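For concreteness, we quote verbatim a single protein encoded this way:
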Amino acid sequence: MLNTLFSKLMTTRVAVMLGLGGLALAGVASGQANRPDATLDELVIEVQALRAEMNQAAAASIRAQLLVGRLQMEDQRISGVIRELESVQADLAASAQTRADAAARLKALEENALGATNDVREDAEKQLAAGKAAAQQVDRRLQSLKRRESVLAKELQEDQTRWQDINARLENFEHSIQPAR
């Protein structure tokens, strides 16, 4: 009887142990079953973060390309204005020389007209009038060139200021993306 009682007690203990072991296994199994779901959620979050970073990088790349393009366009505009300004300044120098030559010629014509006799004086006065008209035309050309030079100098200053602003924006953009590297 003692044997039977002992045997029942052992069977009950084994049954309880098996039950507890089964519960432990069930808990571990359910924990492992939840674990892949958590890992899948983490992967989804990571993929979403990578997508966001790729979108930010693409937007940054586009922004950088636009700023570089604007900088290049402004650089080309500045080069064109500089070429035109140099051309106007060369024309201005040539016109100033032409005006100086015309002034010397007018002075000589006036001296000839003053010292000329009546029959030669009429011809000298016609030459003097033609010389004065030519000098006035050169003066108008000089004034026009000076106005154009002033306009171009102002345009060059504005373009250089715009170029500096774009360059500063590009440098700020560069500094803003450096920590991300």
About this structure: The longest helix spans residues 2-115. The radius of gyration is 48 Å. Residues 1-29 have pLDDT under 50 and may be disordered.
